[in-house]
Amino acid sequence: MKTSLVAVATALFATPSAHAADLADAADTADAADTIIVVGQTDTPVTVVPRGLAISLNQENFDAINAINVEDLMKYTPNFFVRKRFAGDDNAVVAMRGANTVQSARTIVLVDGFVVSNFLGNRFDFPPKWNVVGPAEVRQFDIVYGPYSARYNGHAMGGVISVTTQTPREGWSATGTVQTMLMPFEEYGFDQTFRGYSVEGALGYKQKDGPWSVRASFRHFENTGQSMTYNLLQRGTGTATATVTGAFVDPRLIRPTGLATNAETAVFGAASPVDVTQDQARLRIGYETAGGWEISALGVLWQTRQDLTDPRSWLVNSVTGAPVYQGNVSFNGVTYNASGLTMSATRRTEYLAGLKLAGPLAGWDVALNLSRFWIDKQDVRASNDYLTGAASGAGRLTLANNPGWYTGALSVERRLGAHKLAWGADANQYATSTDTYRVTNWRTAAGATYANSSYGKTSIWGLWAEDAIDLGADVVLTAGLRYDRWRAFAGGLGTAVAGNRVDARFANRTDDAVSPKLSLQGPLPGGIEAQLSLGLATRFPTVGELFQGSQDTAGNLIATSFNPFLRPEQSRDASLLLRRAFGPVRATASLFFQDVKDAVFSFQGTLPDNTLFSGFQNVDLVRQYGAELILEGHDVLVKGLDVDANLAWMSAKTRRNTADPRAVGVQFPRIPAWRANGNLRYRLAEPLRASLGWRYGSRPNSDLLGLQRGRAFGHQSEYLLFDTRLSWAFTRQFELSAGIDNLFNYRAYVAHPLPQRTLVVDLKAKL
């Protein structure tokens, strides 16, 4: 009977069939009979359908991690990278396999079944809304790679991440965490220690013999992160007003556009370090009816203050010794222009509200999720340059007009003999609207005059069905089909013409897609578990890619920063998993393939005023394939030593690009050929635990043509980071931990500098 999977596979692929799958409610737990391969914990079911590589993490994994923010809890996951530039970074985009760190719209992220993916855009500044939950509130992380389940729409092209939070135990319960962190940072003119701290707590109650439960939590976080941007001397024209010293010549840097060949790539200053304060409050209420229905409601408030008011210049006037912040200067006998230093302040208030119902109805298991996420206030004030910043002079004010999204998902399931049938529907609408004003005082926003606007909406509704068929001998065949209907509408730009607002509207667009899915899983000879999955997916453009433009320091829209004519991305995916136990070690091998037609490429550019911006274009065909090896061991070599280790290799190359054929055959930007992550955990004694983690990625290309490669600011670099942690549970209620991230102080870059060696200390209490 062990060979039945081979026979079934032969018969299946000898006869062409149409199959599919799509978006379902993330809180539906996978049936044990359908879950053959899940890497990680198996004590509780995964909360997403585990087709393709599935990873599940729990408290045992979390205890070994220096978790400053919630996304840190995933950092040792296979073939995975989190673009977190500093503690408290709002722009922590995840990269799974060949979905790179500016393709944020290729991953669906849910918290307790509610969508927190920010599909208002698709670049570095549209990450998931991680901060609706603090790290101490997380009970389980489930990560599934690829679009192999019909329950998820095309945004699952990279994968699905589901975060499950803590639930109250019977009676009253309380938890608290106090944490501090510090990071000495040295680069160019910086030699400074940045510090931060957080306070997190929760109070829960569950009736012993009653239907009600409630959990309330809060988190206050403050930190100063290192500067994100270094400013280079640009091409200068005219006469220098001063001869200066103090710039740092670095030949590793990308040469600014138009810089003379006899001019050096010289760093003269840096954007302000980032002062960030975040406050979060959560309330979750649950009710269980006598008829088996569970009703839960979630409300989250998240407030952010971010100040960049301390830009640095290392230029010194050679005659007077005074600092120089901007203007034409002479450095090493060449005339340059020093520009781009500004000041800014951001205030943002965001809300998440969600309602979930799940229970039996006429023999079916039904689940319904409804949620709304909105940015109630987003006020960004910035100066035009350094001098106006210091003098509270001219600048710009950018206001967001309640951007956000609505989502809903319905799933219905039941078993009928050998069949597990499921069907459902889901819908979402994302809307954005931003107004920019020129102001005479950037701090107070006085003297505001209208400059420009960008706005638009997108919506997707989908239908899906799937059937998991038990073929006997532990072999399960799952076939599914998904239909999506997409619409982009109400998009436009506003500009000021002779003091009046004039709007230009874009034409509405509609499109649809059918996405089949197919998965076969079961045993092979020799104690091997296997799963083969196939799928198609279509990822439609986000409202930000289509309609929302970036701005320069004067508040003008950058015409190349959006593209209302983008085509949807279409992928063909395949995954093969093989798993076997070798004594105390379980090994999982994974082979994967993905062809993406009309892949959306986010290119970066720099304006003469040092403004960084992103634009979007379609690349005709990008192909990726690769292999992963994952090892899990408990009590390996000695009792108390556990290990999780993984190694991944990928080829991700442009296969066709009519816009610029030079890109053909070149590794796609920001995707390394090699990744290796892992974590060793050792129980030294009953109250003591120690861990060692590592993260490695080889050097990727920084641009589509593979011409920009390096380990310096502006480049996507390789990284090799080691982390340590020691925990002491000195009573049953209290635990003290100390750890170091980036132990050997490896300098790495995601264009921006990544954190250097960081010390983290936390005290946890559980009552």
From TrEMBL:
Keywords from the UniProt entry: Cell outer membrane, Ion transport, Membrane, Receptor, Signal, TonB box, Transmembrane, Transmembrane beta strand, Transport
Region forming the signal peptide: 1-20
GO cellular component: cell outer membrane
The keyword Signal belongs to this UniProt entry's keyword annotation: yes
Motif TonB box, residue range(s) on this chain: 35-41
Residue span(s) of domain TonB-dependent receptor-like beta-barrel: 314-743
Record-annotated TonB-dependent receptor plug domain positions: 56-160
Membrane topology according to the record: Multi-pass membrane protein
UniProt xrefs under InterPro entries: Beta-barrel_TonB, Beta-barrel_TonB_sf, Plug_dom, Plug_dom_sf, TonB-dep_rcpt-like, TonB_box_CS
A molecular-function term among this protein's GO annotations: siderophore uptake transmembrane transporter activity
Localization (cell): Cell outer membrane
One annotated GO biological process: siderophore transmembrane transport
Family of this protein: Belongs to the TonB-dependent receptor family.
Name this polypeptide is given: TonB-dependent receptor
Organism: Novosphingobium piscinae
